[in-house]
Amino acid sequence: MIRICNQDDIPSIYDIINDAAAAYKGIIPEDRYHEPYMPLRELLEEIENGVVFYGYTDEDGQLMGVMGIQDKQDVALIRHAYVRTNQRSGGIGSKLLQYLMEKEDRPILIGTWASAVWAIRFYEKNGFHLVPGEEKERLLHLYWDVPQRQIETSVVLRNRE
Fold it and tell me: Domains in the chain: how many in total?
């Protein structure tokens, strides 16, 4: 089942993000990876800044995956899409993404690490395409607040113009 997350879910969201983000260790630039990958303070700031998390639950109501979405002017941003390591490749990420895509009638953008090829393939499989270099930089500056180093090592995907 997919549902909107609430304050009580914050510990589970935090655990899922940091469990799943371990896949980045040794893959993304060393200067961009740290543990925990997303400190609790940063997660709370993201929520305060408008990231709304949706979760996929098992039959017992436990969160197995989360995906955030954030309104940004004329687009929506998919933020922090993670599935528990022991639940990967079971369709949870696709279900969450399709659910959020059905809710949106405007373009959706996703930023991810250029070296996270599995993430890029996942988004492409779900109808997104890579944005070319100059446009990528323009979009990252316009819609995200990330350091230049992250811009240099990231890609942006979109589902439509």
Answer: 1
Task: State pLDDT tens for residues 73-119.
Answer: 999 999 999 999 998 889 999 999 999 999 999 999 999 999 999 99
Residue 100 backbone phi and psi in degrees, to 5: -70, -35
Tokens of 6: 């609430």
Contacts of residue 156, defined as CB under 8 A and 6 or more positions apart, other chains included, come to: 109, 110, 111, 130, 131, 135, 136, 139, 140
**pTM for the model:** 0.93
Hey, what are 114's tokens? Answer: 């250029």
Query: Residue 68 is part of which domain span?
Result: 2-158
CATH at 95: 3.40.630.30
